Amino acid sequence: MPVVGPEKLVKLQQQGDGIRNICILAHVDHGKTSLTDALIATNGIISPKLAGKIRYLDSRADEQLRGITMESSAISLYFSLLRRSAPEAQPEQKEYLINLIDSPGHIDFSSEVSTASRLCDGAVVLVDAVEGVCSQTVTVLRQTWTEKLRPLLVINKMDRLITEWKLSPSEAYTHLSKLLEQVNAVMGSFALGERMEDDLRWRERIDERVSAAAKVKEDQDSASEGKSRKTSVVQDDEGVVMSSAPAEYEEKDDEDIYFEPERNNVIFSSAIDGWAFTPRQFAGLYEKKLGIKRHILEKVLWGDYYLDQKTKRILSSKHLKGRHLKPMFVQLVLENIWAVYEATTGGPNNKGDQGLLEKITKSLNINIPAHIMRSRDPKALLSAVFGAWLPLSTALLVSVVEHLPSPTTAQESRMPALLEQSPGSSHIDKKISDAMVHSKQTIGEPVVAYVSKMVSIPESELPGNKRRGGTLTAEEARELGRKKRAELARAQAKANGEADVASVTGALSGAAIGEEAEVESTNGAEATNEDPEHLIGFARLLSGTLTVGDEVYVLPPKFTPARPHANPQPKKVTITALYLLMGRSLESLSSVPAGNVVGIAGLEGAILKSGTICSQLEGAPNLSSTTAISTNAPIVRVALEPAYPGDLDKMIRGLRLLEQADPAVTYEQLESGEHVILTAGELHLERCLKDLRERFAKCDIQAGEAIVPYREGIVRAEEMNAPKDPALGRGRVEVMTTSKLVTIRLRVRPLPEPVTEFLVKHTGAVKRLYSERKAQEAERSTAKVEDDTNGDQPEDIEEHDIEAGDTLEEGGQALSMEEFKQRLKEAFEEEKGEKDDWKDVVDKICSFGPRRVGPNILVDATHDAICGRFLHDNLENEAKDKDTHTSTLADTVAQAFQLATHQGPLCNEPTQGVAVFLEALTLNTSESEANQNMGRLTGEIIRTSREAIRAGFLDWSPRILLAMYSCEIQASSEVLGRVYSVITRRRGRIVEESLLEPSTNFTILALLPVAESFGFSDEIRQRTSGFAAPQLVFAGFEALDKDPFWVPRTEEEIEDLGEKADKENVAKRYVEAVRQRKGLFVRKKVVENAEKQKTLKR
């Protein structure tokens, strides 16, 4: 293959219609990187013989070792195609630039999938022909739907149907039909969900207009009524015509959302054997032979269509008249593929059939090189035949060019909705939005780029530091020799356990000139050549032309064009370099036009994870706040420390670099001084620690035990103790502050299950409503809000706690105040019993917690309604109605509620599903004395209220809620029992088991506590000899149905179980483990069974 130089790629960047930005998405081990290899081989970067084996874009050593992709990588490829403008016209060569991003399939790295999909216009979705639709397949299909990407389906690993399952062509066709139905069912479920939402909005609009028309009818006479109704209909933006009966809902055309081979958006392939095809290719092959037009053959090659060999006519199933004919796809396509496998790898000795092979090559008019024909390797022969007949790159790249949109076309359909979702969309500059929608490349147009993540590149791999030319100079050769000898000497010294003088001399001679040599110290630390890491923005240019030296603004995450100069101020940075991303290497660029994927240097320190850059500040859109990064929630928390205390600064610098370079990592320093990182899973944690030690911190780091989050809740249970105060009732507490100046009466109750689920799912909506409320308060009283904002900083710092419990928040942020109130009321109405207790509760909610966005509520049940209303639009009237003293004290109670729900009474973990009713707040002194003692009263009320909430909490039956993983495993029937034993031993629960026909494999869906999941994947692989691999996805919190404080009390329980009970209280074990880790008091017996010891002498 001829090598395509970067100069040609740079030239093609200027042709907007000739660019295709695509990402390759799939479940883990479905063949993404192998497929990418075949495309890279077309540009001469790797040999076609190594395609599928070298995994070129897996540039990390641990990626090659494990055989999975961990980071999304981009590469730009050249593709040329001969096309006819008319059937009789001469073919013309058209050149295309394919910006391809390969993404990981493992659930721990799903954030990398999100960063890749936002930069692209189309997606190539791979599905394993044997394993079918898996958990991550659904996730990536949802990602394409959410991001409005045009998908292309590739059914990969078709060779497994032949070599492993030994299916006949007819059986394979039946299996492929079912597989296609599964994928289309997933796409249909997304469309159905969106259709139901649209239908609901349409009905609400109709109801609004009907009520408005009725109101007009009451106020005006019949003549003016007709006029006003006509005006309201004409001014309607949605174009719905009003009449006496509501107009029908307009159904959207759902034809384009499904994958259909007759529409050539489905590709059948085997990446490892290097072949792929679409029905269009076979239609071209059979056009002359059958005498049927190509466009007709494309539509009938797939489906229930049959070919009558005698008459050369195509029959549908109803015209068979009892004849047993094979479907055309089996007869004309699959049987030929099967024949090639039989000729090359079939036969009794798996050596193929030489006569059949010669017949095939002759009929296809292809030539196989003589040295391959003499080869004894059947795989080489197979690859040679398919490489000449159905090369993978041709089928895939032609489909990409013809079916996936160019940046100009894609942005016209995607950008309007994206800009509308961004904050302050009404204040976006018209010139900027127009340039983004039409992807204008002209110099002088506003420059807007979206940076999806920061990529860490060692300084030695930057283009400016790479050696040009193929041969070494004499000095470079001597320097390289000295370094190699020094490395060899150090390795020998380490092996012999001695530090001889030669190794020290070699280390000194290997040091770079002009740098201070690091002599080995007495503690055995070795000298290392510094190779600092540089962060480069992985970006998509949406409008304008970006040039090296340009000054642009980096918009912070909370930026809004309505207040462009609000704090924090956007940073102005200078673009120091631009790079063409070529997988393992970079190529320098001087400028980049809109529509391209590019690496941007100069953003280090200005962007944490993702962000928007714009050439002007006024009217700039903030795209980073609309990103739908669907990461697997960072649930695994680990404390780190350096092996040598002197390396602490190195470790902190490395942690900050890691946090910027990895979109799913969060770093924080606790009050105790611990340095903690949050990661998405065990494998992700392992990769982060490796990066820290070898790249970012470059020092030895020790990791503590993984810290898993828990939640605390309460339920109504039969085994509850009697209320502590029967006169007040269960959960009600009346307390007085230590100074006897204030009396508080609270009632704590468990929230109904539907309400808790709703609040957990819509944490994002609560967070957005709270931000809007703060903004309204800012307009009323700027000075007060500045103080409140400073006080709220800890909420933003530990925002990941919210995200860890809020994994399924799809669409939650889009709810308005009225929609949120209505749906919350509906959730309360689902509670069957005690409806009177929850009547009008929604209107009385004054706060959510913890951190003002959690799944607990504080309800103002006081007679005078002294607390503020959270779900209330008119803040001014609310402020006027408040009494100054009582409202100040009520705000203090609200602060105590936040603290109490943030640290529950069991083990100081956040609570979930708790409602606190503030029934009375009485001031037992005069207002003047209260004013004098307000400072002391504030602290007393917070402490007293917090203890009262805890006491009310413990009056019910407490529960510990475990973080749970949803575990999907595909395993054969032979190892099914071993998989079940591992899941059961780790306190897991089997949810579903289904047979994956026509194989003997089963798909197992289970729930597993995160606390018991460490080492689970390795144990499953060991017990099943590698035949089963689990995918763990965080699925929220689930209550352990056991009271941690339960002990046998009744005579029957003591008689059956004994005083200490037969079984260990698992809930108590979890609670005590967390308390012990946090340094809280744990009641433990040091000596369980004491016996008198006898000495040997006696």
Automatic annotation (TrEMBL):
Keywords: GTP-binding, Hydrolase, Nucleotide-binding, Ribosome biogenesis. Transmembrane segments: none annotated. Residues 17-408 form the Tr-type G domain. Pfam families: EF-G_D2, EFG_C, EFG_III, EFL1, GTP_EFTU. GO terms for molecular function: GTP binding; GTPase activity; ribosome binding. GO terms for cellular component: cytosol; ribonucleoprotein complex. GO terms for biological process: cytosolic ribosome assembly. Gene3D superfamilies: 3.30.230.10, 3.30.70.240, Elongation Factor G (Translational Gtpase), domain 3 (3.30.70.870), P-loop containing nucleotide triphosphate hydrolases (3.40.50.300), Translation factors (2.40.30.10), Yeast translation eEF2 (G' domain) (3.90.1430.10). The keyword Cytoplasm does not apply. Residues 213-228, 771-787 have a biased composition (Basic and acidic residues). The keyword Nucleotide-binding applies. Residues 788-797 have a biased composition (Acidic residues). Residues 213-237, 771-797 are annotated as: Disordered. NCBIfam families: small_GTP. This is Elongation factor-like 1. The lineage of its organism: Eukaryota, Fungi, Dikarya, Ascomycota, Pezizomycotina.
